[in-house]
Amino acid sequence: MTSAPSRFPPYPLRGVCVLHQKQNCAPHFAEITVDFEPAAEGFAFEVAHGLTVEYEPAEDLPRFFAAAAAGIEEQLSLPEHGVVAATRVVLRHARADTFGSHELAFKIAGYLAARKALERAGLATTPSGAPRDGG
Questions:
Q1: Are 84 and 124 within 8 A, CB to CB?
Q2: Cα-flanking dihedrals φ and ψ of residue 33, to 5°?
Q3: CB contact set of 32 (below 8 Å; sequence gap of 6+)
Q4: CA distance 135 to 28
Q5: What distance in Å separates the CA atoms of residue 87 and residue 95, rounded to the nearest whole number?
Q6: Cα diameter, the chain
Q7: Cβ–Cβ < 8 Å for 95, 108
Q8: What is the crossing angle of helices 103-120 and 61-76, to 10°?
Q9: How many Cβ atoms are within 10 Å of 108's Cβ, its own excluded?
Q10: Of the candidates 85, 80, 89, 91, which has an alpha carbon nearest to the alpha carbon of residue 7?
């Protein structure tokens, strides 16, 4: 008999910070800090009131934030984690760079932030699907 999937997050996970930076002919740069709060059900993403990011053109930022949200939701929905996302994610901090920031960089940062949060909650799995040990 299998048990029901764990709800994620089991408790608030605040200050999950990720810097995704890759230097090559197609550079990537995205830095985000997010909070994961338990919710009744589903996935909700919001940008903290008053969040400012020094980046031009500022019109690109909503697309970057949406890409981060997509990366987080995608990671949390992977079947190998065995979790049901019931979370409100709040973007508290973001940094962008003129030459390396784009939607893909922010999507990867979101993906990595969700992975880090799963690890902090003890719910991440190894590629084989076995739970990670705490070491």
A1: no
A2: -130, 125
A3: 17, 18, 68, 91, 93, 94, 95, 106, 109, 110, 113
A4: 30
A5: 23
A6: 54
A7: no
A8: 40
A9: 18
A10: 85
Nearest to 95 by CA among 129, 57, 61, 132: 61
Question: Each residue's pLDDT tens digit in the chain (135 positions)?
Answer: 567 788 999 999 999 999 999 988 889 999 999 999 999 999 999 999 999 999 999 999 999 999 999 999 999 999 999 999 999 999 999 999 998 999 999 999 999 999 999 999 998 765 544 444 433
The radius of gyration computed from the CA coordinates of the chain, to the nearest angstrom, equals 15
Q: How far is CA 130 from CA 16, 21, 85, 122, 127, in A?
A: 23, 29, 19, 12, 7
H/E stretch holding 38 reads: strand 28-38
